[in-house]
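Changelog note: in this version the structure field was regenerated for every chain. One regenerated record is shown below for reference.
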Amino acid sequence: MDTTTFSALAEPNRLVIVELLRDGPLTVGEITERLELNQPQASKHLRVLHDAGLVEVNPVANRRIYRLRPEPLLELESWLESFRRLWEERYDRLDEYLRELQAKEHDHDGNK
């Protein structure tokens, strides 16, 4: 898993930009307006997201339209899934252990 994705998403404004772009492409102006940032700040965040491969830019006339790139997010999902499986296995083992304890307790109470 490339840590560049994590580094880019660690900054709150960049995470919000990714969430905004989830609904579809936006111009720098639209992002700036929704985040209530000035244009240079928004552009700096967009540049980091672009360098991390999370967004791509499409220049149209004098506007720049940004959209999400799914590949890094799919990689992130795959990485998270490995942890999800690990925790599910641990919960399953805990479930089995608790059932064994309950059965022993039931057997012990029944033998009195």
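Spot check on this record: The two ends are 56 Å apart (CA to CA). The chain has a mean pLDDT of 90.
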